[in-house]
Amino acid sequence: MKKMLFSSLLLAAALNVGAVNNMKVTVSKPGAPIQSTMYGIFFEDINYAADGGLYAELVMNRSFEFPNNFAGWDISGKVSLKDDGPFDKNPHYVRLAPSGHNDKHTMIENSGFFGMGVKGGEEYRFSVWARVPDGGNSKLWIDLVDNATMSDDQKLGNASVEVSGKEWKKYTAIIKPKRTFDRAHLRIWGDSKVTTDVEHVSLFPVKTWKGRENGMRQDLAQALADLKPGIFRFPGGCIVEGTDLETRYQWKNTVGPVENRPLNENRWHYTFTSRYFPNYFQTYGLGFFEFFQLCEDFGCDALPVLSCGLACQYQNDVNHGKETVALEDLDPYIQDALDLIEFANGAPDTKWGKVRADMGHPAPFNLKYMGIGNEQWDYKDNPVFTVRLKKFLDVLKKQHPEIKYIGTTGPDSEGDKFDMLQPKMKELKADLYDEHYYRNEAWFMDKVNRHRYDNYDRKGPKVFAGEYACHGKGKKWNHFNAALMEAAFMTGFERNCDIVHMATYAPLFAHVEGWQWRPDAIWYDNLNSFKTCSYYVQQLYGLYKGTNVLPMTMNGKAIAGDEDQNGLFATAAIDKKEGAIYIKVANVSDQPQQIMVELKGLKAANKAVKVVSLMSTDPIAENSIQNPDKIKPTESSVTLDGSVLNTDVPAKSFQVYIIK
Questions:
Q1: For the residues of 299-314, what is the DSSP string, one character each?
Q2: Catalytic status, residue 494
Q3: For residue 14, what pLDDT is reported?
Q4: Alpha helices in 261-321 (DSSP H)
Q5: Any bridge partners for residue 197, and if so which?
Q6: Which own/partner contact pairs does 360-365 have at CB distance under 8 Å and 24+ positions apart?
Q7: Which of 195, 309, 330, 366 is the most buried (most CB within 10 A)?
Q8: pLDDT per residue as tens digits for the range 385-434
Q9: Which of 57, 241, 375, 435 is an active site residue?
Q10: Is 231 within 8 Å of 37 (Cβ atoms)?
Q11: What pTM value is reported for the model?
Q12: CA 380 distance to own-chain centroid
């Protein structure tokens, strides 16, 4: 049936080649406001999104806390592991003792995340906590090396640090590689005569986002900023739940001195046996403070998501109490939520406000939103999620009514779980609820889904499309046609902006060598990155959001690809701040379509209309590391005839028309 509906769209378009598609936009009657949070980003540490990705640290297992303490390290000479270090949550360190022979060297070498990407002429900040356990002085030699190619000298760059005394101290040095290499290793040579202890070995590019020492990778953070997001949901996703409660994401472990943030198991490192990464852990160097800081950088609102006391229901028999916090034991989880509000918004003289202030941010972060639970659901005879959500809301709404709280309708876009949970969100008076859908092209083009939000209850909670993406059937990658389906579907968000207040594509990041899930918005290797077609769709909606939706019709109804609309989807918005009208049109048909848009009530406008286009003659084409700009937005212009826009919309394209 879905295939027939999709085919009918293409057939209708073929039968109407050359016909003019008459559309009307009522400029004089702006509709519902489009929320500042309408289009945003969702971060989850999957596909090496944090360590090895956005977080710019180049050393893997820097504190020797992985279950295999030397994971990522090669050792040579007299190297031993100790566990009484200066940081109680990361107690391990290594002792580098002299070998006792002139031609034997004690050395440790780190291979990073699929190697270390370094650029010739750039500066890299090495740091280490070290001491001389027997007192006195020692020297460590630090080399960035290329041991993968045939070279007379493996050294790309080097430095040294002088270590003194029995007390632990932090030492730093700058290394400047002489050439660019994507698979460098870091070597630390011990003193040939004196024993030295080393802990928390770190290497960052000096040029991080905003120049921060514990910073983000510059190109990846810039790609997020360029989306102009209105909301930033973090830290997940399924890692919020954890495979078990012990490994759930606990925000308090991610703040304070970075050296003392404990390691956590990443629930994705063993989930897919077809893409298995046993050394995939979370160091929490990218923690809640850094997430809030990024939100501030991007000018968007933060949306942290917290555990509701249920581990991942896909992996546990939660219905029968496995990995489930009993209702009477839920208070510490609720207290975590209260403490997070204090961390984000509290005065510097409060307990958790002081932690924030001590990290260098005395001003509050102005938190407005909080999610409780991720893809949780109820069972017919056991409402495991909603009873826990109610306990949270009863406390949180009373103590912090200024915060908007977000529930969930589970992992499905429809069906038993969704049908059970959606009315419950209204009953519990959640402010918003989070919908997830990863579906193929037929789903996105199905008439019910194209009109998904047109008939939603306007008196219930608002909608957050928290995770969605088109997964091409048989082509589960970032090809153009999937992005075009997303662009078409998103017109439904905009024309229903009175009920849809947030939307975030997912997932966000993927390392080309470390991915487990696709499609994704932004891909990268150790030195380069590229933006996908789906990224550009999200960016165009974010850049040309507007302040209010404008009524827009064709054949007297919303333009949602119906059978008499020739594969066209369209919506319009006015930007009162910019003095502009934005018309977005997706043509999913195989034929160009002529449109004539009457702008009713338009009093005056520039004749020159800017057009931003995203299109491809090959629907399964995609961008890549080798060809990052194969498909990207292009700009042109058309002429406005009085209050009428008359133009052709290319086949298989997404167009934004900007009328000043």
A1: T-EEEEEE--SB--TT
A2: no
A3: 45
A4: 288-298
A5: 95, 131
A6: 361/289, 361/292, 361/293, 365/292, 365/295, 365/296, 365/302
A7: 309
A8: 999 999 999 999 999 999 999 999 999 999 999 999 999 999 999 999 99
A9: 375
A10: yes
A11: 0.95
A12: 33
